[in-house]
Amino acid sequence: GAEILILDEPTGVLTPAEADHLFRILRQLKEQGKTIVLITHKLREIMAITDTVSVMRQGTMVATRETTKTTVGELAELMVGRRVLLRVEKGEAEAGGVKLAVKNLTVKDSRGVTMVDGKPIDLTGAADPGELRDRGLAHVPEDRHHVGLVLAFEENENSILGYHDDPRYLKGPFLDIDAIRDDAREKIAKYDIRPADCRLKTANFSGGNQQKIVLAREMEQDPGVLIVGQPTRGVDVGAIEFIHKRLIAMRDQGKAVLVVSVELDEIRSLSDRILVMFAGRIVGERGPEASEGELGLLMAGVEHREAAE
Question: How many other CB atoms sit within 10 Å of the CB of residue 100?
Answer without folding.
Answer: 17
